[in-house]
Amino acid sequence: MKFRYGARTKDSELQVGYIEAATKDGASNMLAGHGLYILSLEPVEEKKWYGSFGALFNRVRRKDIVIFTRQLATMLEAKISLHDSLTALYYQTSNLVLRETVFEIATDIDAGLSFSQALSKHPHIFFEFYVNLIQSAEVTGRIEEAMNILADFLEKELVIRSRVKSALIYPVFVITLAFIVGGVLVALVFPQIAEIFEEAEVQLPLITRFFLGLGFFINKWWFAILIFIAVLALVIADYLRTEEGKAVLDEIVLNTPLLGAFFRKVYVSRFAEVASVLIRGGIPIAQAIEIGGHTVGSALYREVLHEIAESVRRGELLSQAFARYDRYFPIIVGQMVAVGEHTGKIDEVFIRIGNFYTREIEALVANLIELIQPVLMIFIGIVVALLFASILFPIYNLIQVIQ
């Protein structure tokens, strides 16, 4: 078996690594024989061939990070040392990826790294905003306060994400199901009905001929169609991972009626929340704006916020910089920031902006949920009507021929 260990030498130097032994006691004896004082010794599970599939279901979700942050904030607030808090969380964390990460963070801190430096080694889990706030708190000595601020922010963001996802899951499911059912009818049912109409020499309407032709095409070329769809999906996914692809997708989304207005509110709310937390944590305004741009989730907004941050560094007022980008930030944002500049309370202004647009998002999501159901009913009704019409019209003509 392989074991992961953390130990100190006689000179108090930290050593971290792996050792192979038949049992845990055997590994402990081997380390002791080399003059090492064992700090931790844990077995490492060997990766199976299906490990990559398991990783898909064991990834670090945002909810896992929220729970970790809140628990760590509570422990630090109770005056438990950072090392002891991380050790306790290591044993309490159920997510294997996050558990491994917590162990590595604790080991790096024992090796002399700061908390923010240890976190920065895991950028896919602890994003830039998270690390920068901790780094600032280390300078001021307010890590407990920073962790509480982070926990509050992440919990609030998780609620908004959950509501948005809940609003989108139902329509996506219904539309997908409608296309699947329609595809089965067109590909399997229609070709069989066509033989009956051909024998009776019934004249088929245009809509029936269209669906019959589509059904024969799918039956003949279904394998090629699947390959084409798979290749097209891979090409599009690869393109959307590029900066140009992300910008194009953002442009399409922001120019889409209703959807564009919704995502503008989401991006502005998310940016304001992040900026308020960073400024309260002692991060300079220009840096807070730039970091906020990286956490918004939009390539276009990231570029715009980078330009705004550069303008602030050149001495321009933040409110004036926002006013130049009124397509991305409503006029009210610049006006409220101008008030914050006069009062010296920019962080409070961003909190108010975030709260305002959060309420806007909640109201819009509620309206969308109410609007989606009748729209879906109309959409499904049209699809069903077309499919039934393409079958009923030829049947009616067949009856006329028989009579």
Give structural notes.
By secondary structure, the protein is mainly alpha-helical. Among the domains are: 1-46, Ubiquitin-like (UB roll); 171-403, Type II secretion system (T2SS), domain F (Receptor-associated Protein). Helix content is 76%, strand content 5%. The chain contains 16 helices and 3 strands. It has helices at residues 24-33, 51-57, 62-77, 82-92, 96-110, 115-120, 128-140, 143-200, 206-240, 243-255, 259-280, 285-295, 299-313, 318-323, 331-343, 346-402, and strands at residues 2-8, 14-20, 37-44. The chain has a 3-stranded antiparallel beta sheet with strand order 2-1-3, covered by helices on one side. The protein is flat. The model is unreliable at 47-57 (pLDDT under 50).
| Structural category | mainly alpha
The CATH level-2 architecture of the domain at 171-403 is identified as Up-down Bundle
Question: What is the helix fraction of residues, given as a range?
Answer: over 70%
CATH topology type of the domain at 171-403? Receptor-associated Protein
Low-confidence stretches: 47-57
Query: How far apart are the termini?
Result: 83 Å
Question: Counting H and I runs of at least 4 residues, what is the number of helices?
Answer: 16
Q: In which order are the strands of the major sheet placed?
A: 2-1-3
Q: Considering the protein shown, what is the CATH homologous superfamily of the domain at 171-403?
A: Type II secretion system (T2SS), domain F
Which assembly state applies to the chains in this document? single chain
Give, in order, the helices and strands.
EEHEHHHHHHHHHHHHHHH
Q: Could you tell me the strand content as a percent range?
A: 5-15%
Rg is 29 Å
